[in-house]
Amino acid sequence: MTVEVFMRRAIALSCEQVEAGGGPFGAVIVRNGEIIAEGANEVTLANDPTAHAEVVAIRRAAQALGTFDLSGCTLFTSCEPCPMCLGATYWARIDQLFYGNDRRDAAGIGFDDEFIYREVVLPPVARSLKMTRLLPDEAQAAFDAWCKSPDKVSY
Amino acid sequence: MTVEVFMRRAIALSCEQVEAGGGPFGAVIVRNGEIIAEGANEVTLANDPTAHAEVVAIRRAAQALGTFDLSGCTLFTSCEPCPMCLGATYWARIDQLFYGNDRRDAAGIGFDDEFIYREVVLPPVARSLKMTRLLPDEAQAAFDAWCKSPDKVSY
Known about the structure:
Two copies of one chain form a homodimer.
Chain A: H1 3-19, E1 26-31, E2 34-40, H2 43-46, H3 53-65, E3 73-79, H4 83-91, E4 96-101, H5 103-108, H6 113-120, E5 130-133, H7 136-148
Parallel strand pairs in A: 3-4
Antiparallel strand pairs in A: 1-2, 1-3
């Protein structure tokens, strides 16, 4: 199978999701030439602001494989990932990503991924989201316990 | 109640999660002076690379309120959010965020949020994750359908 076949499946999911009343985004995750999980944007349908197509597909792929580590997998998404989905892609250790529409196309239909990209690069105090550091000395306790824990599963 | 009370609850969740064998991160979401959702890092326990404390809390808050829009809510997290969680915070329209540990503290115990922050700002072709644009003309179909759809729920 060629990469175009997998991208066309992601695109088909994005089109079907518009028909279903959801957001116009679809994604598939492929391992060893086979689709192991699919997702579409369920934000408004599921009342879940994190349910972008890529996050949905990553969660399902991890469940299907029984691991949080998706090394060896490729993500095909109908649109360039926003910072949330790009972060999820790194945390999942996905090897490679193909995308169709880009962030400018998304902004053109009212999805302002570009705004979030601009915010993420700013230092916390400069963001439009008000961010305040609080009780860092107390917060350190869990990190200390983590370092001492013999049972921890690092990732 | 003061903000310290809510931060201490987020910190308590982070400490309890280490005991439970999970990652050392906790978060709570507050609305009108009341905690409406709590979360802790479930990545390794739930085999879900997206299950950071903030994402878990945001998903639960949205379920509790029956909406994807968490305007009017404040997020208290035991550690500065990574790009995935910061993106989720923006998409959820959370008003304000308090954090305890920061990304340097997290890097110090092996959680490389800082690496992902550096990657996110790069253009797609310059990232360590290989990203390739594919079939943009075909991907546009869902965006066209979205624009024409009378039933769409924008967000």
